[in-house]
Amino acid sequence: MRLLDRYLLRELLVPLFFCLAGGLAFYMTFDLFSSMNDLRRHEAGVGGILLYSLAKAPELLVMILPPALLLALLYAISSHSRHNELVAMRAAGINIWRICAPYLLVAVTLGGILFYLNEEWAPAGERLARSIRKGRKIETEQVFENINFINAVDGRVWNIGKYHVKEKRMESPSVEFTRRSEFDTPEPLAIVERGQPRGDTVKVMAESAEWVSDGWLFKNAQVFTYYYTEEGLESSLPVPEKYPELTLAQIDDTPEEIESEVFISTFDSFKSARRAHLSLSQIRLYLGSHAGADNPLIRRVKTLYYSRMASPFTCLVVVLVALPFSLRGGRRNVFVGVASSIVICFCFFLLNEVSLALGAGGYISPWLSAWLPNLLFGVGGFTAVRKLV
User: What are the domain boundaries of the chain?
Assistant: First the structure.
């Protein structure tokens, strides 16, 4: 790495550290004040408060990374401009893109960190923080009741009394699906091809079920088969087949698919969807089991999915927007450029929120709502920097 690169990086990373530390301290203090009554009521203690703050840190970092990068970049470049260092670099024949290379490298690196935080640390931290605030343990909180899960692609309907996330265990589960009559064999619930038309309706009710190897093991199960005739399904209640233990290869809904249904089905707004900090894999599983569906919840989930894909590029867009206004030489242009960069970036963040709201509301396509601000301001910033070359 050249001496110039090391110098530019040092001048950027130092204010970036202080901006991140200051922003994190500010938001963490504000969040603690809003949560203090709950923490005090549940007697969290000093240790609980510290653990709560650490758990909230990844979520807060995701929020403050782009603005912190903007402020640090404006400070660094304005400092170079005040001392005419940018003029000296250009006079030495250094290309404008070569000067910007360290800043772009930092933006790409922070984008990767933001993506990792969103995928790994923020979901786990948010659940831990919520459990501390409610005075619960993680293991006891991850028990959900009265779950209705529909796999629209494979045509299965689940009703689960209780689901234990950590143990991957169900209480009082029932699952209903369709089987073609011509595939009947002496063995119960023969495996059939997916997507086949009409057939017998089968309902499995069990005392409990647990995930074993790659399938569900039902215990004390009863199997009801409603046979399909030319007039339609039989209306009389069939005599159930009883099994102490039963595994069915046709029922291949994984715990991850059920958990994604559990977490996502409670979203009553796009704001609540963003707060859940679900990973992309969980969102993909949900959308995969609801392929072809179109309703307000699906639109919110799709918008969340594409916004999560687009969010790492926010750091790069912020840099491209700030550079053309800040790189103009001269002492008189420094503060004008800084102010212009802040206004433009504020408009970018505002457009991003408005665009996501339109996507979640079904007014524009979910992928367009997520990528439109990045495309508009990214291309605009790139074009403006090229004009300085």
Answer: 3-135+308-388, 155-252
